[in-house]
Design a protein that fits this description.
single chain; 180 residues; mainly alpha; 6 helices
Length: 180
């Protein structure tokens, strides 16, 4: 889910900054510079968000420990500890996911033509249709998702059933994404 949210956010940012990126291209910025600048912004965003997420997770763990203790649940006593290794893994994962999700929007930012900076403000937005390939992909993913879910429902009592149902849900979600 994080990748999808980051991807959509980056796509929106690149789209909104289309004229600015085109102006940069007009004054001499290369495609590589636009790509690098967009990825640099994503890197900084990933670092800040990962640090905030790591701190929030630590605070959440501390709060849960206090809550469980208040209700008399058996929770080990002592401080909540975050090892340097866990912090590094958390930070690295957050930054890697942010950069991976920002690659396609950054690539599309390089395709902004320099003449787009001269475009009119009142131009009607371009509306796109869903292509046949995307519809076909969505139908195939939906069918596979329903099939996996049905198989999982036949084995509800075992771990295989849970995996089948979860896989079916993921495939159906991918079908919705393909149509989006």
């Amino acid at each position: 889910m994080a990748c999808i949210v980051i991807y959509n956010t980056q796509r929106i940012v690149v789209t909104q900054r289309g004229r600015e990126l085109a102006l940069l291209r007009c004054v001499g910025a290369s495609r590589g510079q636009v790509f690098g600048g967009t990825l640099l912004e994503s890197l900084l965003t990933g670092l800040v968000a990962s640090a905030a997420g790591t701190a929030a997770g630590l605070g959440f763990g501390w709060g849960l420990q206090r809550l469980f203790t208040a209700f008399g649940a058996p929770v080990p006593a002592g401080p909540v500890v975050l090892s340097p290794t866990a912090a590094l893994i958390s930070m690295a994962t957050g930054v890697a996911v942010t950069l991976a999700a920002a690659l396609l929007p950054a690539r599309s930012a390089t395709r902004v033509a320099p003449v787009a900076a001269l475009g009119r403000e009142d131009e009607a937005p371009v509306t796109g249709r869903i292509g046949r390939l995307r519809v076909t992909l969505a139908v195939v993913l939906s069918a596979a998702g329903i099939f996996a879910t049905c198989l999982g429902l036949q084995h509800v009592n075992g771990a295989g059933g849970f995996v089948g149902i979860a896989a079916g849900g993921c495939l159906c979600f991918l079908a919705v994404l393909a149509l989006g």
